[in-house]
Structures are given as structure tokens and as C-alpha cells.
Amino acid sequence: MKEKIKVGVVCIARKTFDYNAAGEIFKDIQSNLKKIETIEWVINTELIIEIKDAQATAQDLKSKNIDGLVCISGTFALGHLILELNKVLQKPILLWGLEELPYDGGKIRLNSVCGINLNSSNLYKAGVKNYHVIIGDQIDEDWLDALRIIKAFATKHIGIIGYRAKGFFNLDIDELDLYKELGLLIDHYELNEIYNFDVDADKVKEGIEQIKKIFDVSAISEQQLGKVAELTIKFTEFMESNQLDALAIRCWPEFAADFGIAPCAAMSILQAEGKILTCEGDILGCLSVVAHSAIGAETPYLADFSQVDFKESFALLWHCGVAPCNLWDGNCNRSLEPYFAGGKGVTADFVMKSGQVSFLRIDYAPREYRLFLQKGIIIPMEKELKGTYAKVVFEDHVRDVLKKIIDNGIAHHLSVVYDDYIRPLEIFAKIKGWDVIQ
Fold it and tell me: What's the rounded Cα separation, in Å, for the pair 424 and 314?
């Protein structure tokens, strides 16, 4: 389900234009807005015409703690109005212009688009660039989704167990800079807090039966199967007890040796249930998955941009065996395998289902955040490898996609989701002033 947000709505106007017609259009807009799910609307139902009205409305909306402001230019209006609203609210703004009505006696009736021009210019020159502009009779739901991402980052409780994986310096973050950018604090836990977390033996037995229904477990031992079931419950109850919405895990090199198995299979099962767990202590990868989840993408997961075939222009999205098990192609044998970590791996093993996919990497380099965005299509392939993987054809030649990753120093994990989830992230990046690489 999409992240719930609270959005303020105002309509500004000027009496030298057809403000009565603008008021009627605004009533229709209000009715349409209320049909959109998972949004609490805070609507100022009267037109804002005078400066004092904008000031009063701004204070009222501030008290309601809105996540963003929709400002409809019912007609051309005083340039003060949007500035007074922004001065108090300091929230992302949607500047919404209306298409012109038929002329009445040779007179322009709304002049709404010119009003948008005035307001956007005023905001831009005032250093306020977190606005987005639309012209038409319907709200831009991609802008609403961008607000959902911002809200998720500011409110989700995200943790990391252990640290990043050994040698993966490129996954490091500056925690206080991340707080400055997103209002987000990361909580740290030690690996032994998971190892030593007590769980009920009966729940482990139930978990074993559940796993047998999902996977062919013939390649692993009973002890390993029990460990997978135990770990799924440990992760679930650990997250619940610490009120965690997402968790990045240092899954190697210690995990298999100290606990007896790697966490891959347990993570595959739990991600299929909608939990956000990311491997190798990748916090920004975790945030990439959180962003996808906030806008309604089902079971996003991290994958490596792995093998490439320049001749046939495809790449293999592969990982050692952690993808959500519900994304199985339905044809190959979906199994648990011990090939990784000297036979202690216990990873999921299957080919991913076909379909359109979108990719996101929220990435950090000194003094800059950026989004890497791509679209592609997963096409069928035979099960030839261990782990979880998919054969992907991109809109551009795979050589060009890889060049964008390499030339910009993008980290090696991408959040993968089925369907097209690109535009809300482009708008989010514009609001934040982050670069987009695509």
C-alpha cells in the first residue's frame, strides 16, 4: 500500500478576472481529489484573493502539519499570495494552472497560465525550487507519489545490523548529512543481537513447514532448514520489538560462520511478505527499496548489475540468492541451495518472472546525492546458475547503461520493481535538488 500523506489545497484568484468561474472549477476539483486513496486532504474551500487571507490560510495549514501544498491558480492572482503561503509552510508546492475558458466578450477570463508563470518566477528567484508545475484539469498523481517518498524517509524507522560488508566502501554514508537531507536517523544493532534473539520452538516448527511448501529443500540438511525457519522468526520479531520498518544487514563474512547459515533464504521469504530487508549493510540500497515501497511497488529488492552481453545487449541481474520468493518465474525448480559460504550459504535459487521492471539507486558521493534510474524488460531464461537472477533488456544498449553506472561511480546494488515507477522519482529528485542519471 502507498504511504499515506496529508496535502493542503488552496485556490488563488483576482477579482479583475472571472473568479466566479474559477470557484466553480475549484469545486469540481475538490470532488475529484477526494476520490484518491491514502491521502488526507486539507482543503481551504474559499478562494484566496487578499494577502491577509493567504496569511491566515498559511497559519491554519501549518497547524495541520501538511506534507505538501497544492496551489491552484484559479485566475491570475497577486504575486504576494504564493510567497506568503510558502513563507510559513516551507513544504513542496504543486503550482496548478487551469486551461483557458472560451473568451467572453473579447475578454480573457482566467489568465491562469500567466499566473503560474508569475508564481514560478517569484519562487525561483527567491531561491525556492521545490515546486512542480502542471496545467490541466487533473492533479499529477506522480507529484503526490513524490511526497510519499519524502514522508516515508522522514518517518520510517530504519536500522542496520552490523556494518557494511567487508571492502564495500562505496556503500558508506554520512549519517548526519543524510539526516540533513531527509530527516532520517539510522539505528545500529550488533549481529549477536539477532543471533541471540529468543524465539518460540513451536513457531520454528511451523516455519519449517511453510518453507517446505515454497522451496525444494532436498539440497540442504534438516539442521540448515531449521536454521532458516529460526532466522525468519528472529528477523520478524526483532523488527517488531524494535519497531523497525526496514533493516540493512551485514550478511557476510561473519554471518554463516557464527550463526550456521547465511541470511539469504530467510530474507527471500520475508521480503515476499512485504518486509524490507537489504543485504551487505547497504543503507542507501535500503532507502531505495523504501522509496519504491512508498509509491506502491510490490516487493522491491536489491540486485547486482552483473554479467553483460554486449553482442545481444542484455545484462544479468544476479545476487547470491536473496530476491523475494514470490517473484519466481513459476517454471524452474525453486530451491534452497548451500553452495555459498563453504556450504553454509542456504540461499534461494530460482529465475525471476518476466515483465517490465524499473530500477533505482539512491547514491551518495562527496557533497552530492543522485538517483540512478532505468527501465527494462526481464525476458525468460533457463535456470543455469545458483542464486536468484533475471535476464534484462534495457531501453538503451546495455553498453550505454553500464557506462552510465561506471562513469558516475554508482554503487553496485539496484532496487528492482516490476512495472514503471520512474516519474515520481524524477519529481522527488527535482524537489530535493538531486541529480538524476538515466
Answer: 26
Residue 14, classed as helix, strand or coil, is coil
Query: Which residue matches cell numbers 524490507?
Result: 276
- Report residue 338: phi and psi, to 5°: -100, 20
522519482: which residue's cell?
425
pTM of the shown model: 0.96
Mean pLDDT for the stretch of residues 409-423: 97
What is d(CA 393, CA 380) in angstroms, rounded to the nearest whole number? 11
CA torsion angle 192 198 199 204 (round to 10): 60
Longest dimension (CA), the chain: 85
DSSP character at residue 325: G
For the cut 90, the answer to whether the pLDDT of residue 341 exceeds it is no
Please, are residues 271 and 289 in contact by the beta-carbon 8 Å criterion?
A: no
In tens, the pLDDT along 363-386 reads 999 889 999 999 999 999 999 999
Q: Summarize the confidence of residues 401-423 as an average pLDDT.
A: 97
Q: How many CB atoms lie within 10 A of CB 204?
A: 18
Please tell me the least confidently modeled range out of 282-291, 333-342, 406-415. Answer: 333-342
Q: Any idea which architecture 153-437 has in CATH? A: 3-Layer(aba) Sandwich (3.40)
Tell me how far apart the alpha carbons of residues 114 and 120 are, in angstroms, rounded to a whole number.
Answer: 10
| Tens-place pLDDT, residues 226-280 | 999 999 999 999 999 999 999 999 999 999 999 999 999 999 999 999 999 999 9
* DSSP per position, 67-100: SEEEEEESS---THHHHHHHHHH---EEEEEPPP
Torsion angle, alpha carbons of 111, 113, 117, 120, to 10: 120
Q: At what angle do helices 80-89 and 51-63 cross, to 10 degrees?
A: 20
Identify the helix (H) or strand (E) that includes residue 21.
helix 19-33
By the 8 A CB rule, do 346 and 264 touch?
A: yes
Helix, strand, or coil (residue 302): strand
Which residues neighbour 56 within 8 Å (Cβ) at sequence distance 6 or greater?
none
| 5-139: CATH number | 3.40.50.10940
Q: What does the domain layout of the chain look like in residue ranges?
A: 5-139, 153-437
- Express as a percent the part of the chain with pLDDT over 70: 100
- Mean pLDDT computed over every residue of the chain: 97
- Please state the rounded mean pLDDT for residues 171-188: 95
Residue 366 pLDDT: 87
The alpha carbon torsion through 323, 326, 331, 335 (nearest 10 deg) reads 60
